[in-house]
Amino acid sequence: MKIADHLNKDTKDKLNHIVKPNKKVKKRKRDPKKPKEEKVNWHDIMGTNNRGLRRGKGGAWRN
Known about the structure:
Blueprint: H1 9-18, H2 42-46, E1 54-55, E2 61-62
Antiparallel strand pairs: 1-2
């Protein structure tokens, strides 16, 4: 038998008033880390990052 079965209604009400139910602590859901995007050097891809050299006449590289 439960202890509550032995108590009368008045004492049950008093106990319920005194005792507060435990508050559940919610765990924060962690967001999965998003993969970082690689930095793309578009100047290098397009071929314009050539130490200041430019194409001259005939397609040759020169200052």
